[in-house]
Amino acid sequence: MIHRHLTTSEWTRAAIDSALEYGDLSDWQGLFAQARTDRALAEAVRAVARAHRVPGSSVMALQLVQSLWPETPDRSR
Fold this sequence. Notes:
60% of the residues lie in helices and 0% in strands.
């Protein structure tokens, strides 16, 4: 995803936030393909989704992280 206001191609928290709010399907596929193998990234997605409640996107992102890493409990409950 090319982020309008970011100068990095890494999945920083700002980039995750941008993908959740403005990203399309290919952006989500890239983010969650990497989150599937990177627990730290998955936890960053979880933290961003909890902090910035984007209607629809935040709930879906939280569910996707839980499905990728079911053994990692969501501590927000």
